[in-house]
Amino acid sequence: MDIATGLGLVAGAVVLVSLIMMGGDLRMFLDTHAFIVIFGGSFAATLIRFPLTSIFHGLPLGAKFAFSLRRMSQRDLVDELAGLAEIARKSGPIGLEKVEIEDPFLAKGIRFVADGYDGNFIRDNLERDRDNFLTHLDEGQKIYRAVGDCAPAFGMIGTLIGMVQMFANMTDPSKLGPYMAVALLATFYGAAVANLFCLPIADKLHLKLVDEEINRTLIIDGILMIREAKSPTLVREMLLAYLPEKHRHSEADEAEAPEAVPA
User: Fold this and answer.
1) What are the extents of the domains in the chain?
2) pLDDT digits (tens, 9 = 90+) for 81-92
3) 23, 76, 169, 216 — which has fewest CB within 10 A?
4) Residue 223: how many CB atoms within 10 A of its CB?
5) Of 65, 68, 111, 118, nearest to 88 (Cα)?
6) How far apart are CA 117 and CA 108, in angstroms?
């Protein structure tokens, strides 16, 4: 699980609730009309903006990856692919069948190599798989960003509705307070939903999209080099280019260290 996402949401909720409780009662900030205008209006605008299939794919996938963390870093992927290249060099592609691989995308590519599939087929299949996954993840971040853009706007609409109702009932002082509450709470709901939930999750999904694109491209290149029976050293050196400069040098130093000791 991505702890940062969960901690951020919990911390934001705690801050809002604490501020509310310091100056009044939590029930003062609960209003059905404001809830309807924010969530109903934002959902309706999102339905107009995106196809229904994109919403069904994007929302669950976005929520899943906003709270999940890839188990293997790019550095771990380079190490594992170099180790798989070593196994393929010693035992041939058949030796890869007995290896247990945690990453599903990497496991799929290694299965293709072990089964003797053509290199072009492996590249086309894995690239199509990667592109489809990234497309759905991009849909997710766009949908959350769209909701984040709509929520403050519908908060303003709710405020305007509340103000109109308030001014229309100026002769009845008992109705001025509830209508003013609706006006202010709509803006509050819209700002909170957009800035605490939707827009941060959209940004998190964008970062994870970029990270997944690099990781899966790295895996594809590594799989194809293993398919072509490249040496483990060459596989490692070629894949190190995907790592940041700092990690690249430390990885290279670690790779050279065992050879320096016997010399």
Assistant:
1) 3-71+122-227
2) 999 999 998 888
3) 23
4) 26
5) 111
6) 12
